[in-house]
Amino acid sequence: MECVILAAGEGKRMRPLTTSRPKVMLPLANRPMIEHLMNSAIKAGITDFIFVVGYHEEAVREYFGDGSEFGANIRYAVQRSQRGTADALNAVKGLVSDDFLLLNGDMVMNAEDISGLSGAVSPCMGVFKSSHPQDYGVITTEGKRVTGIFEKTSEPKGDLINAGAYLLEPGIFGIISNLELSERGEFELTDALMEYVSTGNLTTYALSEWGDVGEPWNLLDANAAMLENLEGNIEGEVEDFVVLKGAVYLGKGSTIRSGTYIEGPCVIGENCTVGPHAYIRGATSIGDNCHVGHSSELKNSVILPDTKIPHFNYIGDSVIGSKCNFGAGSKIANLRHDKRDIMAGDRNTKRRKFGAVVGDGVLFGINSSVNPGAIIGSGAAIAPCTLVEGKISDNTKYGR
């Protein structure tokens, strides 16, 4: 069976992390999220993939190539402009020969569910029971038959959501060709699926596990879930007087220096230096070529490659872009005194503990302080002894 994975979108809600990369290339446990999805499909016995690419497509093509290094065969289709999910799917018209799987590239699924969905009768939609269905498209059913598909609403008609995973047949392309633009100015896949709903042909497959990675803070939950099954492995050097507890993965060419204390699960990439006397707490991923130095502490965070956190820094519950540099004493707070949910801009993270979203190439002057929920744009420069809060645009010089 062929598997189509949608990977063309920018992911505007992920800004500034998607300034220079598509959303699907953001890392979970130091691997692009789309790689985890593909690996689940491979475990389910699927090896033929079509990636629909568009925004910064070169990042996807350069990383995956023809798929041979991953035990897969990958072809590419291009969505030149972002005109909706149906338009993205239409890019593979003529490339699929029979029933095929369609998966959104920004989610987490296990191999068992992919196998179950691929064995269903098409057309079939993967669904999941959500504790906050108001954030998603909701479906109604009679038995396993879909009776309605509804966009996000503050008063959802149930707790069963559209998970963005489908088993479809080539006839879907004929339906797409007759679609009109939606109120959002896009060609919506859900509008095409309503054709099947109207004839009673669309059924459901209930997913046992599922994770949406639509917002920066979702990366923390998905990263922690990926690390739960981490197998510790030390491929680099660990000096004397280092304490490692739980599962710790250390990449080639990396060194953990004396006096460092690490509580797993934690993954550290290649050519990194950690310590001396650093403290890294669970559910933290550190990308390649990073430096976490003397008396710096990291907790439940995702750090992209080539970032330096070298002296007396604290980063908790945060997502940090690549090629950032934290001046000595710079710290990111992650808890409000009133214990309320952290707001990031006008969006509720629904987390009591959340630090900041920091884009690529951000420079922090010494003793900078970042308040919970800050969003700092790529290329920003923060002056020494500055309090950072709210949303900072790309390439801004902030502070005195």
TrEMBL record:
Catalytic EC class: transferase
Keywords from the UniProt entry: Acyltransferase, Multifunctional enzyme, Nucleotidyltransferase, Transferase
One GO biological process term: UDP-N-acetylglucosamine biosynthetic process
SUPFAM superfamilies according to UniProt: Nucleotide-diphospho-sugar transferases (SSF53448), Trimeric LpxA-like enzymes (SSF51161)
Pathway in which the depicted protein is active: Nucleotide-sugar biosynthesis; UDP-N-acetyl-alpha-D-glucosamine biosynthesis; N-acetyl-alpha-D-glucosamine 1-phosphate from alpha-D-glucosamine 6-phosphate (route II): step 2/2; Nucleotide-sugar biosynthesis; UDP-N-acetyl-alpha-D-glucosamine biosynthesis; UDP-N-acetyl-alpha-D-glucosamine from N-acetyl-alpha-D-glucosamine 1-phosphate: step 1/1
Domain Mannose-1-phosphate guanyltransferase C-terminal residue range list: 262-334
Positions of the Nucleotidyl transferase domain: 4-228
Catalytic activity: alpha-D-glucosamine 1-phosphate + acetyl-CoA = N-acetyl-alpha-D-glucosamine 1-phosphate + CoA + H(+); N-acetyl-alpha-D-glucosamine 1-phosphate + UTP + H(+) = UDP-N-acetyl-alpha-D-glucosamine + diphosphate
Homology family: In the C-terminal section; belongs to the transferase hexapeptide repeat family. In the N-terminal section; belongs to the N-acetylglucosamine-1-phosphate uridyltransferase family.
Name of the protein in question: Bifunctional protein GlmU
